[in-house]
Amino acid sequence: AIITASTISVPYLKPDKWDIDIQRLLIKDVLGQGAFGIVRRGWYSKENGTDIEVAIKMLRDPPTNEELKQFCQEIEIMKSVPPHPHLVSLVGCVVKEAPLLVVEYCSKGDLQSYLRSAYEKISKAAMMNIDSENNSTSVYAFNKLYDMSQEDTEDIPQHKDVLSFARQVALGMEYLASLKMIHRDLATRNVLVCDRNTIKISDFGLSRDVYYNNVYCKLGGGKLPIRWMALESLTHQVYTTQSDVWSYGVLLWEMVTLGSTPYPGVPTHELLGMLNSGYRMPQPDNCSDELYALMRSCWKEDPKSRPSFSSLRETLDGLLEGYS
Ligand code: ACK
């Protein structure tokens, strides 16, 4: 394929060991689009002769200076984080021509789409017509639906898989937190699914290093993931590992409801008022009491009362033991 981005200089990136020769990349179809630009599938032919499948993130053409700067910052953050099994790993980057971020390919795409297609499969099999955006409580008529779709249950997460996904995300976040990094946009759309249902956190290059005071205050605009944000992020623009824990609770809810949009039926402008007066999402159908208790603990008003990612992971270890 052709790279459409015109040749632009990349003042923010210096060549280093992560530098990839663009000639070694075979860029193929578009996997998806984001606010920043597009992600394409491709192949990287390594110096040692092996070819690996990769995802290639690139800016829209032509990028603004601010977009370019942010993208380069994302690349620098990815370079600085030592690899972890539950974070999408960096393969390299191109700096000479248009800037490209090359990461490992996760064959099953993002977790939100993965869950939503499982939901589609189940509702099709059950010949039900549920609006997945707006009707979350009827989403999880799980067991009944399973009886009807026995043949085609591959890629339909069972309760055990949901727990395993949750544990893997907690492991990745435990690691990011140990590096004093906050993600700020933890949601199923930013988690990828690989073969054998391995889960990897992506877009952590957009996260912020909070080494000095453990708090990041966001100033200025930009589109915000309101429905995933902690109360203190909504009211005071404060982001911490504990606000990532709140988002993690919302991510658990997304998983249990197979990709529903949080706070169904609640307009965004009413959300803050509701949360402030103590409202939290109710227990979804078929969500175990244990898992719901875990979500609720993530949504405690006082950030310090929320569990750490390590304790979340330990609780999930315990819940998963019941299945082995
Ligand atoms: O569901 P998807 O195909 O998975 O749509 C989104 C899209 O790009 C925008 O983020 C896909 N994507 C992003 N990174 C990767 C990756 N490393 N491997 C596979 N797909 C990816 C994502």
What is the helix tally? 9
Taken from the alpha-carbon principal axes, the silhouette is globular
Query: What gyration radius follows from the Cα positions, in whole Å?
Result: 20 Å
Stretches where pLDDT falls below 50 for ≥5 residues? 1-9, 129-141
How much of the sequence is in beta strands?
15-25%
Encode the helix/strand succession as letters. Answer: EEEHEEHHHEEEEEHEHHHH
What can you see in these coordinates?
This protein has nine helices and eleven strands. The chain is α+β, with helices and mostly antiparallel strands and 324 residues long. The strands form four sheets. A five-stranded antiparallel β-sheet has the order 1-2-3-5-4, covered by helices on one side. Helix 4 (159-178) runs antiparallel to helix 6, helix 4 packs antiparallel against helix 9 (309-321) and helix 6 (241-256) packs antiparallel against helix 8. It is globular and about 55 Å long. The termini are far apart. The model is unreliable at 1-9 and 129-141 (pLDDT under 50). The site of 2',3'- cyclic AMP (ACK) has 15 residues, from strand 1 and strand 5.
